[in-house]
Amino acid sequence: MVERVDARVQGPRGARGSSDSGSAPSVGKEGARAGAPHAPARPVAERSKAWFEVIFDEDHLRTLPQVTAASTRCEVDFLEQALHPDKDAEIIDLGCGIGRHALELAARGYSKVTGFDLSLPLLIRGADESQRRGLKVNFVHGDFRELDRREQYQAAYCLSTSFGFFDDETNRRVLQSICRSLRVGGRLLLEVVNRDYIVRGLPARLGWEGEGCLVLEEVEFNFYTSRLHNRRAVVFMDGRHIEHVISIRCYSLHELGKLLHHAGFRVLDVSGHWAHRGRFFGNDSAALIVLAERRGE
Q1: What is the value of pTM for the model shown?
Q2: Rounded Cα distance, 192 and 159, in Å
Q3: Is domain 51-193+251-294 given the CATH code 3.40.1790.10 in the classification?
Q4: Does 43 score more than 80 pLDDT?
Q5: 69: which residues sit within 8 A by CB, 6+ positions away?
Q6: What is the distance between the alpha carbons of residues 115 and 100, in angstroms, rounded to a whole number?
Q7: Sign, Cα dihedral of 77, 116, 48, 65
Q8: What CA–CA distance (Å, rounded) separates 210 from 65?
């Protein structure tokens, strides 16, 4: 089911409890059988939301460093060279946020770009910018864990360590779903932080000034689980104070390569920086930028 939240932003496909034919059966009054006795209502414990379900909003944008237009152009140059998409190819930006890369691709003439993200505030910001600039990007509200679009895309990309939020098994299933969403020979560009680089500087305490706010972080690494744990506190000039605990699974190159292989991909090349495609310097490279393609059956 697709629920339209905004004229330019689509709601989640395949959300739990929904079906292609319509809404899920109601568990309230409308879902009761005629003539059946009414059972007393039971209190339902509300599930606490995961950090990635709440952190990505307008306030989050205020904590980020400014990204220049030149940086975006450099990254999209890399995307074009690596993915080799046709101008009318279906391309999906997984974890698109405000659509920085998707909008640049649309500005370059790519007519079927989809931005996919769980954050409605960021999607709406991207859709507004798309409309303002007269660009065509299809912004879709959805969850990586529920991605179900078989062989729809020629190319996909997932950048800025948007992969690794879940437990190991769920991360594996997410990569398998991404692979199934691509046509055979379709390409994926995946950028995540390089585990072997970051562990050298941890634990650490960090602080910086954002847009009308001060950000403080305590960052640790769990060597048993290979998860980065970040306790973040943000103090705003208007007096508000928010805290989040962020947990991300980090990968070494050999580990990520195996994960991609088992998901159905073939790794084509690896880079450690946007400015140097195909060059990777082990634990001296801050990022893993991996280009892979879907193998044939």
Answers
A1: 0.84
A2: 7
A3: no
A4: no
A5: none
A6: 10
A7: positive
A8: 7
